[in-house]
Amino acid sequence: MLAEFGYGVLLVSFVVTVYSGIAAFYGVRSKSSALVESARRAQLLTFPLITISSITLIYLLVNNHFEVSFVYEVTSRSMPTYLKVTAWWGGQAGSLVFWSWLLAVFTSAVTLRKWDRDAEFLPWVIVISSITLTFFLGMIVVFENPFTRFWLSNGEVVPSMFRPSANATIFTPNDGQGLNPLLRHPGMIIHPPMLYLGFVAYVIPYAFAMAALITGRTDDRWTRITRRWSLWAWLFLSLGLVLGGRWAYDVLGWGGYWGWDPVEIAAFMPWLTGTALLHSVMIQEKRGMLKHWNMILVILTYSLVIFGTFLTRSGVLSSVHSFANSPIGPFFMGFVTLTLVSSVALLIWRWPELKGETEMKSMLSREALFLLNNLLFMSILVVCFWGVIYPLISELATGQKVTVGPPYYERATGPLFAGLLFLMAIAPLSAWGHSTVQTLGRAIWKSALAALVVTGVLFATYTQNIYAVVGFFLVALVLFATAHEFWRGARARQKAQGENIFAALGRLMGRNRRRYGGYIIHISMALMAIGILGIEIFQTETQGTVASGEKIAIGDYVVEYRELASWDSPGEGVNYTRAVVDIYENGIYLGQLYPRIDFYYDSQQNMTIPGQRSTFRDDLYILLVDWQPVSSIGATFKIYVNPLVNWMWIGSITFLFGLIYAAWPDRDPADAPARRKVTAGNRQTSAAD
Amino acid sequence: MKKLSNILILALVLTGLLISPVFAQDDMPTDDEVNAIAKQLYCPVCENTPLDVCPTEACRQWRELIRLQLSEGKTEEEIKQYFVDNYGARVLSEPPRTGLNWLIYILPPVFILAGAFILFRSFQAWTKPRAVEADSGPGEEAGSTSQKDEYIARLEDELKNRK
């Protein structure tokens, strides 16, 4: 009964969404504001409708309704309630409902804004977001229905929404399969919602961009309205990526946080275009240039969001054949192609009207360096996209499956990331409109000198590896140059206003959140780069099997195996095997670590939880690989020393701080007057923002 | 299942112990030597998982196979080739540089260079006409400054006056 109710509500939301899109379209064509208003209300209605359907699904999940196949697949009796709730996005069908629900939240929020000044955008924003929501809801109601139940029909169990034959009865399994244990980690519980929030939030800037194209409003109004949306979308996407990395580091048991897995790259690609957009949109706002390019970036980001969902949801990554077998694969592919082609067609239609208002004057101006930054981001995108796609092409063309793994990505993206670091150091010092080698040189020589000194010290005391040396120099350059920017601004204010330096710094930052939030993000990126350099270049590992009392040495560390215990926890349905090891550094006792393996009975899967000791210098990361309970051979450990990896997480927290600082609501940027059209001969030579 | 795998491992270890006297004990390859090769190979059954960290029983046996082959004196290349011959090119962390696979190595640099070229030509196109018009602009400079956030203008003035 409840399942039918939930499905019914989903069907109604689907119909309402379709109506909303069509009504908005005809409303704007026939200039009927009543019809547009009706579309707006229909759009607002999708939020409560999908909410009701979601609550129904959660109710079924929490109350062990295993007759519903989705509930059976992702929960089991032994799972705690909070995990049953999060199982909502733990499986295919549920996660699509979650996606739709978030989109309904965002589109409802956006239709509630004041539209007085942008009334011409409203119907088109509704049309675009309705098309997207229709697609997802359609996929759910037709192919991936989370309310499908098991039926006992003629002695066979069949999944079906409705009674498959007259004599069929509902079949309720005793217990469910349970959520994949890897997904029960706190990081994995928050990671998908963050990623989805980021994904879905990018639909809004895209909808506004398309509305701008359709209405022919070619000023920078759409970028101003969606600036904060893009920033929050970027925040959630970044957070999703970082949490995913932390989760991998904590539960996947391969001693790292990023494996260049296609699923990771699927989420990374929209981040790349989103980051490029974040920068190039500023050029449009400041200089009235690159209108075409920003359109291309927002279209790419949207398409990559859908494409990323497709990659992870259709099974195409395991095999192109599973793509053909899964009903949603071709459906997804069709939608991505359709939206991409029609967006590009719209862009081409408006191409002549989107001409830049000013032109580039100097190859070292801020806008020119931003363009280089965009080129680098696009290059990384090309490498990633091709790396993900090529195995599929190879399988289709030759039948041969190939793996494109970390060596390919690292070799190709390493220099590009280094280039980005370099731009991060110099671009903030360049001026809009015009910079020369002399002005840039004057601004950076002190930072460069300081970075050289630091690198020299590192060279003498820490490493002679050329990649590491170059990497550390660039990191130091970014840190010094950015710190110098803070100092220069604060000192100027201090002198002019007679404030003390801290008050001056505080006011300076408060007056231009986006600029200084951005600088904090640059600093965080440099900190993360330290962690990446550390683990990529200096990671060491060893593996050994030892009896109790025996030791394994790695670098300055010695790990001594003490004991091992294995026990069942019937309430949780888990078997824990936990080893106790003493750790020493240069002979000094540091404490104990407890690497363990959790075996989940319901899903018959292992989870390897490392014992970790984290410091600013390195992480000691110990995995229990294997154990022999009956012999004296003891246990097998795999031990990693991951130098500097903690800076990755320190950088992530700094990043979060910087982003929230930049995105925190103050004056609504949409209320600020639009930038006056700049005439061709106009010059702006400010170094500010 | 867990028990079964333990018995299997025990059997493997015991066979190892029985076989090992045939070879000099010191020659038995260490886990690190095995992992050094396993790291470069990908699990033939799981997606995108390097063999050295793959927790499945199949991979455990493949690692033992590497150990066995190492103890027989096979080189790293020979062992990798053995896996390619038996399980296909997908066990390698990168596609072998043959035939169609060259696309993966050639296409990204071509695209990146093309992007750089387009950007460079755009720069040229943008900067050229400016050489003539740049001189006609100074009268509007003050106007453009006044439209900026007044704080930024003040900060700029402060910075100029600092020296």
Keywords for this entry:
heterodimer, A: 689 residues, alpha+beta, six-stranded antiparallel β-sheet, four-stranded antiparallel β-sheet, 60% helix, flat, disordered C terminus, B: 163 residues, mainly alpha, Helicase, Ruva Protein, domain 3, 2 domains, 7 helices, 65% helix, elongated, disordered N terminus
Got a strand count of chain B? Answer: 0
Gyration radius of chain B, in Å: 32 Å
Uncertain runs of chain B are: 1-25, 130-148
Low-confidence blocks of residues of chain A: 673-689
Order of helices and strands of chain B: HHHHHHH
What structural class do the secondary elements of chain B suggest?
mainly alpha
- Count of DSSP H/I helices of chain A: 20
Give the amount of beta strand of chain B, in percent.
under 5%
The chain pair forming the largest interface, with residue counts per chain, is: A-B, 80 and 66 residues
How far the N terminus sits from the C terminus of chain A, by CA atoms, comes to 59 Å
Structure description:
The complex is a heterodimer of chains A (689) and B (163). Chain A has 689 residues and is α+β, with helices and mostly antiparallel strands. Chain A is 60% helix and 13% strand. Chain A contains 20 helices and 13 strands. Chain A has helices spanning 2-29, 33-62, 69-74, 81-86, 92-111, 122-142, 186-201, 203-215, 221-252, 262-287, 291-313, 320-325, 328-350, 366-398, 406-426, 437-461, 466-497, 501-511, 513-538, 646-663; strands at residues 149-153, 156-160, 169-170, 540-546, 551-554, 557-569, 574-585, 588-593, 596-600, 605-609, 611-614, 618-627, 635-643. In chain A, the strands form three sheets. In chain A, strands 5, 6, 7, 8, 9 and 10 form a six-stranded antiparallel sheet that branches. In chain A, strands 4-13-12-11 form a four-stranded antiparallel sheet. Chain B contains seven helices and no strands. The termini of chain B are far apart. In chain B, helix 2 crosses helix 3. Chain B has two domains: 2-93, Cytochrome C biogenesis protein (Helicase, Ruva Protein, domain 3, Orthogonal Bundle); 100-161. Chain B is elongated and about 70 Å long. Chain B has 163 residues and is an all-alpha fold. The longest helix of chain B is centred in the last third of the chain and has 32 residues, at 102-133.
